[in-house]
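Hi P.,

Sorry for the delay on this. The queue was packed all week, but I finally got your sequence through. Input first:
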Amino acid sequence: MKKYIGLSALFAVTLVMPSFANDPVEMRQERFKALGDDIKQVFRKHLPANDFAAIESFAKGAEGWAKEIPTAFPEGATSKDAKPEIWENWSDFEAKAQAFEAASAKLALAAQSQDAGATGAAAKALGATCKACHNDYRN
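Then the structure:
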């Protein structure tokens, strides 16, 4: 139980850190870094152990972050990792964030089912949404 709480707490802390309130670039970089670390744990640790509770917790946190992603990219808040095409193709960028949100919700449902095959497939589908956005919008 402690590992589930730890995973949820880590992701939650990155979501509400007030120190980033005035710096959207730093905030989004920290949140994406935490998300990436958590995704690695899903594939390396939680899927092999059939730790469905940890996967569900991650997926619900990811779904919440997905809803906020567009607000983390206000126009003019550029960084070395964000391509200018984000703002040039805003509707596509938003669609990719929505695809990530939908994939996160599907992963949560798959984890709830405790079906290892469905959960693994949903995790891979979630990863594909990350890759699709990175291919188009990340340096």
